[in-house]
């Protein structure tokens, strides 16, 4: 018998996240075969009168494609994926990686070809601004291991996070969104971190289960050239199949002028992908009450309670500072006391200290008010 939580998740994705309607076309793309959820999504799509299409992908096959690719080959792949995406009304991505480092030995120039020629036109330029979409993971042994949990324990955690009452969370987000849109100057203080920038005039967006599952953040972007100071990211990260710890940036006039990490060369290779990769495209504050520790999966880590992320690379058009890049790398700092604490100030007013919101209108986003 199928786990009833799978059917509940499928219903939330189809009816709440995407709000699929009769006759709409939805592409369900699954990397790492998870037939139970794919079947449930197909059934639920048909139940509302939508037209589901399914693509199944495998990490090891993708690795072989990326290793042997060329600009001509990737342009051919991108041609068909772009036309299909353009024809869709909605998109669901289920990614369940058995090995987060599967692409670690794919040469960086090959991954750059994929990012620039396929991912950017198909996803960054077409899917993200023009389609209704939602991206999620699915519990497997690899994710359980990264979380230091049993598979059963991780499944319980996963469904509690993904089936959260996002409509309730959305209401609590509104005061933060409105405050961010009134704010000019941001000052962030923490271990090895003293960062200043402006967010004046840039839209703020609530992430309340409509794009990512799990969810729980409000994001905007810094004025592109306004970032000054240093930041240290205390959450480990994985990007393009490589893992990094102790990432630290120094900014001058918005640009990352110094970057170090556990793999400084690979870090700078990524930042040198294009001009926009050394500028910040997103600033977001995370507050999902169930997600407390990093697990090298950004869909979870960027929502950690008491965290924020400060993202090198492409800005979203709905919160746009004009930065364009094939890179979009959400790097996370956690400010709860056990991670060293920290403060976020808006226009010289303290809004969050050690991971807890201190303004009365924002207290609804503290963990005890969201569970």
Topology:
Elements: H1 4-17, E1 25-31, H2 35-47, E2 51-57, H3 59-68, H4 71-87, E3 90-95, H5 108-130, E4 132-137, H6 141-146, H7 151-162, H8 166-182, E5 185-190, E6 193-198, E7 205-207, E8 212-213, E9 217-220, E10 228-233, E11 237-239, E12 242-244, E13 247-252, E14 255-260, H9 264-271, E15 280-286, H10 298-301, E16 307-312, E17 332-334, E18 343-346, E19 349-353, E20 356-357
Parallel strand pairs: 1-2, 1-3, 3-4, 4-8
Antiparallel strand pairs: 5-6, 5-18, 6-10, 7-9, 9-15, 10-13, 11-12, 13-14, 15-16, 16-17, 18-19, 19-20
Helix pairs in contact: 1-2, 4-5
Shape: globular
Enumerate the spans where pLDDT stays under 50 for 5 or more consecutive residues: none
End-to-end Cα distance, whole Å, is 28 Å
Q: Approximately how much helix is present in the residues?
A: 25-40%
Strand order of the largest sheet: 14-13-10-6-5-18-19-20
Number of domains: 2
Task: Indicate the mean pLDDT.
Answer: 95
Q: Indicate the radius of gyration in whole angstroms.
A: 20 Å
Instruction: Give the strand tally.
Output: 20
Number of helices: 10
- SS-derived structural category: alpha+beta
Biggest β-sheet strands, sense, barrel: 8 strands, antiparallel
Give the strand content: 25-35%
Strand and helix order: HEHEHHEHEHHHEEEEEEEEEEHEHEEEEE
Family: Belongs to the peptidase M29 family.
GO molecular function, one term: metal ion binding
Organism: Brevibacillus gelatini
Cofactor: Zn(2+); Mg(2+); Co(2+)
């Amino acid at each position: 018998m199928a786990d009833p939580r799978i059917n509940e998740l499928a219903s939330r994705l189809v009816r709440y996240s995407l709000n699929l309607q009769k006759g709409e076309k939805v592409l369900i793309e699954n990397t790492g075969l998870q037939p139970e959820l794919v079947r449930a999504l197909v059934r639920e799509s048909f139940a509302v009168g939508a037209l589901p299409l399914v693509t199944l992908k495998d990490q090891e096959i993708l690795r072989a494609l990326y290793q042997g690719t060329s600009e001509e080959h990737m342009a051919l792949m991108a041609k068909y994926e772009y036309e299909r995406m353009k024809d869709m009304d909605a998109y669901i991505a289920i990614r369940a990686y058995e090995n987060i480092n599967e692409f670690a030995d794919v040469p960086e120039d090959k991954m750059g070809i994929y990012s620039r020629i396929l991912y950017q036109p198909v996803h960054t330029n077409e899917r993200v601004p023009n389609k209704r979409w939602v991206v999620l993971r699915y519990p497997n042994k690899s994710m359980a291991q990264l979380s230091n949990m049993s598979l059963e324990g991780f499944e319980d955690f996963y469904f509690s996070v993904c089936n959260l009452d996002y409509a309730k969370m959305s209401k609590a987000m509104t005061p933060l969104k409105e405050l961010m849109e009134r704010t000019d100057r941001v000052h962030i203080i923490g271990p090895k971190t003293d960062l200043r920038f402006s967010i004046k005039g840039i839209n703020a967006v609530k992430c309340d289960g409509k794009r990512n599952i799990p969810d729980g953040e409000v994001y905007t972007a810094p004025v592109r050239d306004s970032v000054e100071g240093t930041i240290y990211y205390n959450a480990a990260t994985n990007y393009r199949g490589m893992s990094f710890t102790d990432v630290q940036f120094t900014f001058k006039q918005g640009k990352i002028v110094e970057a170090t990490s556990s793999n400084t060369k690979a870090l700078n290779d990524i930042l040198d992908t294009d001009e926009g990769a050394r500028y910040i495209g997103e600033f977001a504050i995370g507050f999902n009450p169930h997600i407390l520790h990093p697990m090298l999966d950004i869909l979870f880590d960027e929502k950690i309670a008491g965290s924020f992320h400060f993202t090198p690379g492409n800005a979203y058009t709905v919160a746009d500072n004009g930065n364009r890049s094939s890179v979009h790398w959400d790097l996370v700092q956690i400010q709860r006391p056990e991670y060293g604490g920290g403060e976020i100030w808006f226009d010289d007013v303290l809004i969050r200290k050690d991971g807890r919101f201190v303004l009365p209108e924002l207290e609804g986003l503290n963990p005890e008010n969201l569970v």
